[in-house]
Write a structure and sequence with these properties.
about 325 residues, alpha/beta, Rossmann fold, four-stranded parallel β-sheet, 12 helices, binds phosphoric acid mono(formamide)ester, binds norvaline
Length: about 325
């Protein structure tokens, strides 16, 4: 029986570096428990009467729908707030927005650009703030990814994850998440597209203490060799649309395809946070082939986030 960890109550969920292995394990256990309850039709209204405000400054399918459905399954409600329609879009400060929303809602989820914006929001808000993606982090996605890996591999510790593509928000959060749970990680990017240097150096320091291997390379074969999990993401993230064409050339040798996957472990699983561009960062045969678990992964956004919502918005 997992003991409720009330220390999460009113805690912001902005980046995985703020959480311990024990915290992540607790959230994964909670996600597994509530997933089983939902599949069996057992009600679990831990957030009855609570409201989540969701601010979106970028587009979303999975994040919006999984948070909204998650709040409904937990007995609460979610309100979708597009920044185009908020006074935020007309110059009201993020701090004032946070103070006002805190008077109405019990939690705020935001998808925005700079990570400094979510930090400013969290500083001013009196409710917990959850990161639904910034330019540098996507921690809810990585919690769902860890849940998916655990379900398919039965463990997290001792596995090797490789991420091949752009050193973006996914690469940064995967680095933080993998090292926390004791998973080796290798990242291959074209030169100049490496993950955030500050995050890499913090993660390397932590990895040295726990004997986890972290490799940052420009060689996709080095990264994928013997990998248990093969991961990629789009080559041009939201906000980088102008670079799309230039990036197609720069990243062309970094596609996940059958030839590259010959070097992975025979039982590898393929993950992608989605949305995917078939035949750009991943070939159709891998994306839709037997190793791909991308739709289990997308489903797990719901279950992982319900664990975050329950932990941060209820007292256990
Ligand atoms: N993976 C992910 O965050 O998807 P959305 O952009 O659709 O929310
Ligand atoms: N790196 C992508 C992730 C989308 C879920 C982006 O930021 O657009």
């Amino acid at each position: 029986m997992i003991q409720p960890n009330t220390s999460f109550y009113n805690t912001d969920f902005l980046a995985l570096h703020d959480f311990s292995k024990k915290d992540i394990t607790y959230l994964l256990d909670e996600a597994i428990t509530m997933k089983a309850m939902q599949k069996k039709g057992i009600p679990h209204p831990y957030l009855a009467g609570k409201v989540l405000g969701m601010i979106f400054e970028k587009s979303s399918t999975r994040t919006r729908v999984s948070f909204e459905v998650g709040m409904l399954q937990l007995g609460g409600q979610a309100i979708f707030l597009s920044s185009n329609d908020l006074q935020l879009g007309r110059g009201e400060t993020i701090a004032d927005t946070a103070c006002v929303l805190s008077r109405y809602v019990d939690g705020i989820m935001i998808r925005t650009f700079g990570h400094d914006k979510i930090e400013e929001l969290a500083e001013a808000a009196s409710t917990p703030v959850i990161n639904g993606l910034t330019d540098s982090h996507h921690p809810c996605q990585v919690l769902a990814d860890l849940l998916t890996i655990l379900e398919h591999k039965g463990t997290l510790q001792g596995l090797k994850l490789c991420y091949i593509g752009d050193g973006n928000n996914m690469a940064n959060s995967l680095l933080e998440g993998a090292v926390k749970v004791g998973m080796d990680i290798a990242i291959a990017t074209p030169p100049g597209y490496e993950p955030d240097a500050t995050i890499v150096s913090a993660v390397m320091e932590e990895a040295a203490k726990t004997q986890v291997e972290v490799v940052i390379t420009t060689d996709p074969v080095t990264a994928i060799t013997d990998a248990d999990i093969v991961y990629t993401d789009v080559w041009a993230s939201m906000g980088q649309e102008d670079e799309q064409v230039q990036r197609l050339t720069k990243f062309k040798d970094y596609q996940i395809n059958s030839a590259l996957c010959q070097h992975a472990s025979a039982q590898f699983i393929f993950l992608h946070c989605l949305p995917a561009h078939r035949d750009e960062e991943v070939s159709g045969e891998i994306m839709d082939g037997p190793h791909s678990v991308v739709f289990d992964q997308a489903e797990n956004r719901l279950h992982a986030q319900k664990a975050i919502l329950k932990a941060t918005m209820s007292q256990g």
